[in-house]
Amino acid sequence: MSQKFNVNVNNAQSFEIDSDSVNNLDIVETNKGSFHLLKDNKPYNIDIIKRDFNTKSYSVKVNNNTYEVNIEDTLDALIKSMGFEVGASKKVDSIKAPMPGLILDIMVKPGDEVQINSPLLILEAMKMENSIVSPREGIVKSVTGIKGQTVDKGELLIEFE
């Protein structure tokens, strides 16, 4: 099964590619981080200048032109939509329900200081208990969820100061 990727180049151009298309490229690694690509009978020399695997961002030089490339797969898109981006822990100021469900337990209250990965609440969805943990260090500003309450996807549960 082919996996799909969203690619953003220089924060200006976005497109979608799939793993089958990538696997069918006529590309050869010439040195570590350097490649030769033949596409539509045109040669391209590609050098990976910089890479950050955590954020899936790369600086790529193609025929002496440098491009900033970000790659996102479907899991990255899901994590981003839930507000749990890798490397974005300082930006997260609220926790929203990632899916509809029932709040089984809330482990924090306003004023509590939490650490990264501290359990915040347990949300039951589709007969599974999902532990929602803190994406960052901080102080809980408010808790809008109530134990025993059902919530809809995207509903605000917890805010940080």
From TrEMBL:
One Pfam family matching this protein:
Biotin_lipoyl
What InterPro entries does this protein's entry cite?
Biotin_Carboxyl_Carrier/Decarb, Biotin_lipoyl, Single_hybrid_motif
Where would I find the Lipoyl-binding domain in this sequence?
A: 83-161
Gene3D superfamilies in the record, alphabetically?
A: 2.40.50.100
What are the protein's UniProt keywords?
A: Biotin
Q: Which PANTHER family match?
A: OXALOACETATE DECARBOXYLASE ALPHA CHAIN (PTHR45266:SF3)
Listed name of the protein: Biotin-dependent enzyme
Q: Which organism is it from?
A: Olleya aquimaris
Q: What lineage is on file?
A: Bacteria, Pseudomonadati, Bacteroidota, Flavobacteriia, Flavobacteriales
